[in-house]
Amino acid sequence: MEINDVKTLYSSYLFQNYGREDICLSHGDREFLYDINGKRYVDFVAGIAVNCLGHAHPALVDAITKQAKRMLHVSNLYYTMEQADLGEALASIAPSPLAVSMFCNSGAEANEAALKLAAKHTKRTKFLACLNSFHGRTAGALAATGQRKYQEGYECLLSNAFEFVDFNDSEAMKAMVSKDTAAVVMEMVQGEGGVIPASPEFVRTVRDLCHDTGALMIVDEVQTGMGRTGKWFGFEHYGVVPDIISLAKGLGGGMPIGAIVSTREVAKTFTPGSHGTTFGGNPLACAAGKAVIETIKKEGLVERSSELGSRWKRSVQKIADEKGGVKEVRGMGLMIGIEIGARSKEFKEQCFKEGLLVNVAGGNSIRLVPPLIISQGSVELFNRTLGDFL
To answer: In terms of domains, do 77 and 179 share one?
Structure first.
């Protein structure tokens, strides 16, 4: 089958709500993907920061295969060891007092659960979020997203509980947080917004304000969690601990799973029947999540993300200094943004022609979120491509 045949099937039988590259992928191996004609691509997107172990990692494949032979789904009417094991594994990497987890199916669902938990726990009605943020496309998560382009056409569904503050504007945040604030929800790095890290002052301000007013600090770690930034969680770079974090993407290494992790005191708010999900925490996804955490630990991928990411960012900055045409290089670990303005799309298309898959975020920045196992050779290939383009 050729790509045009696949596109015909898509146009006949699927919603046309995505803009897709002219490629049909068939399989992957490590940081490589292959299309139906056998052409190899280097994957610097990783399913948008999902495939942290790359493609077809033996440990993840083995865990999923063994679990599929035992039990796929039983619902949350019953206990399963797989869910308990993943909760224990998350507690082993989360700084105290973050200790207990609840599982769902995606990042948007995790953020929805975090917002519901904060509202019920504080019994307050107002939330603060940041402009240029992205928290998901379900109604609640979309209401918390500070980008109008994602909200247009859905205004009737959006809550009026959300107010927005400029990202990294500490003084504006001080003016907005009050005794009526249920929570402040924020990213440590605005990934969809263009890979923009939070400033230490801003994060510290939010933490202090939440502590002083009784509001909860919710950190969206959907994209930054699981070693992506060179630490298990992005907030660890800032010397603070939130009240609730949301996880997804890399947690399953490719299997759909989301989670919130909170303190024991906050978690008590969700009593039986107060929140739920049919598929959340199913044995297959939980087995994958446990395998991801164990493999990241075994292979030292958090440390590798920090070291390789730092070297890579420096090398990209050197190319930018020599060639020009780059406004800024930013990010943490293996989450790197290269702001090249109006030429970002052109560079993405050039990469695609040469067998490199990259993504544009924030409209003007190349976002690099490759598998944490990416090789030095693939990093150097990207650098040569960027240098030639500039």
So the answer is: yes
Does residue 74 sit in the same domain as residue 172? yes
Specify whether 133 is located in the same domain as 274: yes
Provide the number of structural domains found in the chain.
2
Indicate the burial class of 4 (C-beta count within 10 angstroms; 0-12, 13-18, 19 or more). Answer: exposed
Q: Which residues pair with 328 in a beta bridge?
A: 339
61 CA to centre of own chain: 22
Q: Are residues 27 and 89 in the same domain?
A: no
pTM across the whole model: 0.96
* Coil vs helix vs strand at 385: helix
Same-domain pairing of 85 and 169: yes
Could you tell me the CA-to-CA distances from 285 to 68, 104, 259, 291 in Å, in that order? 10, 10, 11, 10
pLDDT in tens, 91-139: 999 999 999 999 999 999 999 999 999 999 999 999 999 999 999 999 8
| 128 phi and psi angles, rounded to 5 deg | -115, 135
Task: Give residue-wise pLDDT tens across range 283-334.
Answer: 999 999 999 999 999 999 999 999 999 999 999 999 999 999 999 999 999 9
Q: Quote the CA–CA distance of 247 and 199 in Å, as a whole number.
A: 21
Based on the fold, state whether residues 202 and 69 are members of the same structural domain: yes
Query: Which contacts of 171-174 are long-range, i.e. CB under 8 A and separated by 24 or more positions?
Result: 173/128, 173/202, 173/205, 173/206, 173/209, 174/205, 174/209
Owning domain of residue 210: 59-299
